[in-house]
Amino acid sequence: MNRPKRILWLLLLAAMLLPGLALANGVSETFTQTSLLLILMITLADVCGFIFERLGMAEILGEIYAGIMLGNLALLGIDFDLSNLLRSSEFMVYSSELALVLLLFLVGLESDMRDLLRVGRNAVAVAVTGVALPVLLGLAAGAVLGYGMGVEGWFVGAMLAATSVGITAKLLGDNGLVNTNSARVILGAAVIDDVVGILLLAVLASVVVSGEVSALELLWIVAKALLFFAGALLVGQKFMPGVIHIISLNKHSSVWTGFALCLALAFAQLAHFAGLAPLIGAFMAGLILDDVDFKVGDALQKHRLEELVKPISDIMITIFFVGIGAQVQLQALLEPQVLLIITVLTVVAIVSKGAAGYMVRGKDFDRPGIGFGMIPRGEVGLVFAAFAFSHNVFSADLYSALVLVVLLTTLVGPLLLKPRLARF
Fold this sequence. Notes:
By secondary structure, the protein is mainly alpha-helical. It folds into 2 domains: 3-88; 93-423, Na+/H+ antiporter like fold, CATH 1.20.1530. The protein contains 18 helices and 2 strands. Strands 1-2 form a two-stranded antiparallel ribbon. A hairpin with a 2-residue loop joins strand 1 and strand 2 (299-300). The two termini are 41 Å apart.
């Protein structure tokens, strides 16, 4: 065994032994317990992420797998309940919420309003079909499988409607196909999916928090979400360039990291005050920075802000994905009903997005390839699932099944797309 592999396995062994050492020494202090927990989660996530990347899969899968391992150590006879620690520790709860804010901020930052306005008819058709079909089929599956057609069914449908195009975009980029007609449709449809998905989350989150379900209240929730979107965009266009100019007088790059974090948190709080989910505000905070140039030292380029936020977001989002995996109960996946839900919803997830590719009109498009490129749900679907589970919309069994569905789509999408790349 070569040196890198030995180091890798030593790190993995050390991370796995930490809980036992902490418990054996009667660790009860909050700082010590939380520190050991963070070391364990981050180390194991990094190791598993590295292994999954070497196997040609997404790093996010490794991080979730690390969480699944930690959350199910009881099956190996190890008395370490990570799921309970995550729920009982105020720091860990806040870390997960902060990770969601940063994740949605980055999604907004990566979404381009100009691209949204010029995506074209084909991208719109793919996006609309790719949202409507999963929602409708998810609701129908709820009626058949027994998890219901109420808020629970709508959350399942919304989770299936989400598209995480990052994995597809990386595959297209690695093969030099980003500027092909089919790739443009996928990327454009994904931008629309983000906006529609966030709007849908705004409505569902408000229903869950307030319990308001009448038609009039639903209309008011939608109106509030649209007004918040419009107001945030207006503020961004009118005032953000001036704010950026003032901040750019400070030549230290660290000021931009603090600015981005404070802006995301401020808009998240504004959304909360407006009766919407904080995630909506974080998304809008990223979106309003879309057309603004950022002067960092001598560089004038938007992507620099994403790079400066990345060190914080990477750690927080890793904690979030490990936490998602830790809530998965492996024993629940052995239940026939849960296995049926996984099978049906995975088929729904693949078929609904695959069919959306056939909405494209014209020549020089690979319709099956476009549909396959929309299949991965990734982090966007997990945000929906995590929010619903934290607000007791999903049972532990349904949540475990849905996380596995997301993982399967993230694996299956690229596998189906690769053979079609030659036709792009």
